[in-house]
Amino acid sequence: MTNPVESWILNHTWFDICGLQGGFTLGKREQQCNYYIRRTVGRDKIVVILVHGGVDSVICAALFHKALLQGDDSSRVQAIYIDNGFLRKDE
Fold it and tell me: What positions does the domain GMPS ATP-PPase occupy (predicted)?
């Protein structure tokens, strides 16, 4: 928990000075990502995503899969695992 002074400083900086708005939710961000992916890829293209086991590439592949899934057809997104040699031992 932040104290009232810290809270005021953060709110003043983010909202008053930077002009940010407080309506951010993960659901809204996911909707924005889905819209952007659909608009950019179009309806007839296949996407190839290279996944190396890190969080960023796996989340990206999952977002693309969810945005481009059409009925039971999940073939528009092809995720290919790349072993880059930098994973932890035994992973």
Answer: 24-91
